[in-house]
Design goal:
Pfam family, one: Aminotran_1_2
CATH architecture of the largest domain: 3-Layer(aba) Sandwich
Number of domains: 2
Cofactor: pyridoxal 5'-phosphate
Catalytic activity: O-phospho-L-threonine + H(+) = (R)-1-aminopropan-2-yl phosphate + CO2
CATH superfamily of the largest domain: Type I PLP-dependent aspartate aminotransferase-like (Major domain)
Number of strands: 13
Strand content: 15-25%
Domain Aminotransferase class I/classII large: 57-326
Radius of gyration: 20 Å
InterPro entries: Aminotransferase_I/II_large, CobD, NHTrfase_class1_PyrdxlP-BS, PyrdxlP-dep_Trfase, PyrdxlP-dep_Trfase_major, PyrdxlP-dep_Trfase_small
Strand order of the largest sheet: 2-8-7-6-5-3-4
Largest sheet: 7 strands, mixed
CATH topology of the largest domain: Aspartate Aminotransferase, domain 2
Helix content: 25-40%
Order of helices and strands: HEHHEHEHEEHEEHEHHHEEHEEEH
């Protein structure tokens, strides 16, 4: 079990505050609260082993959706978390610089495999590292490293056998920040998450895109049938539905602005985020977190930075009203 704290743990919330009569309003994750409508899935996807031709169709659809070259090496996995856990095997014993603070699993997974891990505030501080890891846009503050800076960094790392890992878990809401068009370049490995933007975290689907050497090794470690048939079919449908994606980006942008305005009106200071979550600061954040929990609203605290809270988006007007009433 991971020891890194995460959002979405309603069992732990109920153990602390009890089960709310109105049910939980879970704002503790960065998952789209209005999910992609899962299409009808034929019986074969459930009772047959995942088919190679359908997996290849998924990879082709992912390349088109993410804007990679048509021949870019890609591997699908049951979520990006398993890929994050496998990455240290690509460069055992490496000196790793992680641009942070950021998603805690990156540092934890590299350290667990014996890497020397340092968190740096600037890419320039990673000059001596063998591996550089950044989340772009970053979680939880939404900071973006300009995509134009990253290919040259990947080239410098590749020249000495290193690796640049770019976790683009939230790039769907800032597609201009992606370096997917550079996929296949030696020294560059990109992670893409399916569940967050499409609101289907339970599907457990993610992708690694990179040079053939790394992608072939990851595919070998994942083994056959890593992604189940229903996830393959859902991924093909969602990744090819450009109209839904465009509409979702518009709605998420509007709702993120609405959430920011609500939080500012209640005394929070905006500290960034993306259109899937907002990071805010308040001198009494711990008290507010507890008060919201007692009201059945779960948000994300940061024990090491106790003045910060992260709010995901309410999915509808009723959710916004409930949050406003609890804050009020």
């Amino acid at each position: 079990m991971s020891m890194v704290p995460h959002g979405g743990d309603l069992a732990a919330a109920e153990a602390r505050w009890g089960r709310p009569a109105e049910g939980w309003l879970d704002l503790s994750t960065g998952i789209n609260p209005v999910p992609y409508p899962v299409p009808p899935i034929g019986p074969a996807a459930w009772h047959r082993l995942p088919q190679h031709d359908r997996l290849q169709a998924l990879l082709k659809t992912a390349r088109a959706c993410y804007g990679t070259p048509a021949d870019a090496p890609v591997v699908a996995a049951p979520g990006t978390q398993i890929l994050i856990q496998l990455l240290p095997r690509l460069r055992p014993g490496a000196r790793v610089a992680i641009l942070g603070p950021t998603y805690g699993e990156h540092a934890a997974c590299w350290a667990a495999e014996g890497a020397t891990v340092a968190t740096v505030g600037l890419l320039e501080q990673a000059a001596e590292a063998d591996v550089v890891v950044l989340v772009n846009p970053n979680n939880p503050d939404g900071c973006v490293v300009g995509a134009g800076r990253l290919p040259a960094l990947a080239d410098r790392l590749a020249a000495r056998g290193g690796l640049l890992v770019v976790d683009e878990a939230f790039a769907e809401v800032k597609p201009w920040a992606s370096v997917a068009s550079e996929a296949g370049r030696p020294g560059l490995l990109i992670l893409r998450s399916f569940g967050k933007f499409f609101g289907l975290a339970g599907i457990r689907l993610g992708f690694a895109i990179g040079a053939a050497t790394e992608i072939e090794r990851l595919a070998r470690w994942l083994g056959p049938w890593a992604v189940p048939g229903p996830a393959i079919e859902t991924g093909i449908a969602a990744l090819s539905d450009q109209d839904w994606q465009d509409q979702a980006r518009t709605r998420l942008s509007d709702d993120a602005a609405r959430l920011t305005a609500l939080l500012l009106a209640h005394g929070f200071t905006d500290r960034g985020g993306t259109d899937l979550f907002r990071l805010v600061e308040h001198p009494e954040a711990a008290r507010i977190w507890d008060r919201l929990g007692r009201a059945g609203i779960l948000v994300r605290p940061f024990p090491d930075r106790p003045r910060l809270l992260r709010f995901g988006l309410p999915g509808d007007d009723a959710g916004f009203a409930r949050l406003a009433a609890a804050l009020g």
